[in-house]
Write a structure and sequence with these properties.
heterodimer, A: alpha+beta, two-stranded antiparallel ribbon, 13 helices, B: mainly alpha, 12 helices, globular
Chain lengths: 343, 324
């Protein structure tokens, strides 16, 4: 039995992350595609609490980066002016959750200073803002692809388990076929057969469809197993005896038994599919510039000098790991609940 | 024997299914390798049409599939548009390298996972167990991609290990010992990444299976008979837990191959991965099909191996089969 507070902590972490990603425009201090050509590969801005005279500030402040005249892409803090961190500041225009236009940002500093919590990339774009809005793409892709997989899996698994006979036999052989193929190879193969140059919306939808469709087999087999055992329960037979139709039986008695497994599967599949999107974009088969996605952000690490010199370019990996960790702990918690309730 | 024959036939049927699926997908695709040529004004459309006809791309799907199967029986597996040779000649070395890397990682991962899982299962809930479980969660969520990038960063920063490829330049002139050392040094980063990535799931399964077995009455009675700790764990509990673990071995190969694809591309290991990426980009149809099929063959062989091991390890299964 997993401690309750642990589950709660994982859920709170996940909800916070998703809210931050959903309201990326508000949380992020800068526009993810605006370039600062004067600050390529600026390191993360440091938050200071103690100034040069040794006074303690309760409100943290930052110094502005200035390029070092003697070196390439290196910066030092110009300590002549302090810029206190401010909350609910007005900044670049964006749309709240893609709908309502707004200019208010959670935090920021006065111009001309800028705050780069996770440094900048080769065009001087704020990495922190790019991670948040890249998360919109990557996490949304993961969730939508999971939905596709689960809907397909429930449909096929439910039909196969409930009606049985040759439908069941052929569906399960087909599922076996999909499970024996190594998924990343198939993903690459399928992507290879699809047109390379598409608009980003098309690519996004295509990616989700491909990732989601390939993964239908495992949920289908699980659902089939549950449906199979559920339909042989006495109360289902009794209900049938009272004249319940197949649709009613499925809706009222059989499908509700699958919810637990579906939730667990969802929590397991989302991080896996986020990773699939990240992998494809990392190799340039997913969304391309300037739309940020976690895979696209990590792709700069393929350049030797970036990998060696600018450690903050690993920041999207941290975001990816935290999201996966959150989902996996929730999946574990669900799984343990299922096990303890069934035994 | 009959059982194994049945499993082999099953595997071959799966292979045929997979190849049909590949061709169906390829038919859904608009455009082909030669479409990129249309962008070049120096190549006339009639030339492209002639090329398409020469490679048989203008024929209907069943005919193409038939000719591919014939060429597979000749051992060629189709023709690469980009390299202008048979797919087999492209794949042979790559398959060897990928197999080398993945089997090494598999062996390493199991060698670490089994003792670690057994050890964790014998101290459930203690701090070693908790730390290791935490570490496995972390490793799972880091994924191959981040792991290999991190290891690469480490290797490059410390200059301890060579990065990229499988051998240094001038490999041919080295002595045998130096050759082995050079290969090992190049192998460390990809093999470590792949091992670390496949390790956590194995450890968790070994632990879960063993915890279950350790709670059963026969272990209790063995302990009451005064069987020693190590003997209890490795002679009594581990064989009893072997079945699901062997099945897991077959199933985990898919993840391992997928991980290997990533690791190979990033570290420049000359296996199937980089070739697949390249041929995906240039839409070199038969190379993609060949690689997907090769990976499927690995998977099926791995599952067959797991079946054989199950029969070899489990006397109950042998008795069942004899009774049939």
């Amino acid at each position: 039995m997993m401690a309750r507070h642990k589950i709660l902590a994982a859920v709170v972490l996940l909800v916070t992350l998703h809210l931050a990603i959903l309201f990326a425009g508000f949380v992020a201090p800068a526009d993810p595609v605006v370039q600062n050509r004067d600050f390529p590969f600026a390191p993360p801005t440091r938050l200071h609490f103690v100034d040069l005279r040794g006074h303690l500030h309760l409100r943290p402040f930052v110094y502005q980066w200035t390029p070092r005249p003697d070196a390439f892409n290196e910066y030092e803090e110009s300590r002549d002016r302090e810029y206190p961190l401010q909350f609910f500041v007005s900044g670049a225009a964006y749309r709240v959750a893609g709908l309502v236009p707004s200019r208010v940002h959670l935090f920021g500093v006065d111009a001309p200073a800028q705050i780069f919590l996770a440094g900048t990339d080769s065009y001087g774009r704020d990495q922190f803002s790019r991670i948040l809005s890249g998360g919109q793409i990557s996490v949304a892709a993961g969730i939508l692809a999971t939905l596709i997989s689960l809907v397909l899996g429930t449909l096929i698994g439910g039909v196969a388990g409930f009606w049985g006979k040759w439908i069941d036999e052929s569906a399960m052989r087909f599922a076996e076929l999909f499970m024996v193929l190594p998924w990343l190879y198939v993903l690459f193969g399928v992507r290879a057969f699809l047109p390379l140059h598409l608009s980003s919306v098309q690519t996004f939808l295509l990616l989700i469809a491909v990732i989601g469709t390939i993964g239908w087999a495992r949920p289908a087999r699980l659902i089939r197993g549950i449906v199979l055992s559920a339909k042989n329960q006495n109360y289902v037979a009794a209900s049938r005896g009272f004249g319940a139709s197949n649709v009613y039986l499925l809706r009222r008695h059989v499908l509700p038994q699958t919810y637990g497994v579906l939730l667990t599967q969802a929590a397991l599949l989302v991080p896996q599919y986020v990773l699939a999107e990240v992998t494809l974009s990392f190799f340039g088969l997913g969304l391309s510039e300037p739309t940020p996605s976690w895979g696209g952000l990590l792709a700069t690490l393929q350049q030797y000098n970036v990998l060696v010199s600018y450690w903050w370019m690993f920041a999207p990996a941290v975001a990816l790991a935290v999201v996966s960790l959150g989902y996996l702990s929730v999946a574990n918690a669900f799984h343990e609940r299922l096990q303890s309730s069934s035994s | 024997m009959k059982y194994l024959f049945r499993r082999t036939v099953h595997g071959i049927l799966l292979l045929i299914g997979a190849s049909i699926l590949c061709f169906l997908f390829s038919d859904l695709a608009p455009g082909s390798f030669f479409d990129e040529m249309k962008l070049n004004p120096q190549i006339s459309s009639s030339t492209i049409a002639a090329l398409r006809a020469q490679y048989g791309l203008d024929r209907p799907l069943p005919v193409r599939y038939g000719s591919w199967v014939r060429s597979a029986f000749r051992g060629e597996f189709g023709y690469s548009f980009a390299y202008n040779t048979s797919v087999r000649s492209l794949l042979v070395l790559r398959v060897r390298n990928t197999l080398f890397l993945t089997s090494l990682a598999t062996i390493l991962a199991w060698l670490i996972a089994v003792p670690l899982g057994v050890w964790m299962a014998s101290h459930p809930g203690k701090w070693v167990d908790r730390i290791c479980m935490g570490a496995t969660s972390l490793l799972i969520s880091l994924s191959e991609l981040v792991l290999v990038l991190g290891l690469l960063y480490f290797a490059v920063r410390t200059h301890a290990l060579p990065v990229g490829g499988m051998a240094s330049t001038g490999f041919d002139r080295l002595s045998v010992l130096a050759k082995v050392w050079d290969l090992t040094a190049h192998l460390i980063v990809p093999a470590a990444a792949l091992t670390l990535a496949s390790l956590p799931i194995l450890v968790r399964h070994v632990r879960a299976c063993l915890v279950e077995i350790l709670g059963t009455p026969f272990i209790e009675s063995a302990r009451a008979h005064g069987v020693g700790r190590a003997r209890l764990l490795f002679r009594h509990a581990l064989p009893a837990a072997a079945n699901p673990l062997i099945s897991l071995f077959g199933l985990s190969l898919g993840g391992l191959l997928s991980g290997s694809l990533l690791v190979e591309v990033i570290t420049g290991w000359p296996g199937l991965g980089p070739l697949l990426l390249e041929s995906s980009m240039s839409r070199d149809l038969y190379v993609v099909v060949g690689i997907v099929m090769a990976s499927t063959v690995f998977m099926i062989c791995g599952n067959l191996l797991a079946d054989v091991m199950l029969v070899a390890v489990d006397p109950r299964l042998r008795a069942d089969l004899r009774a049939e």
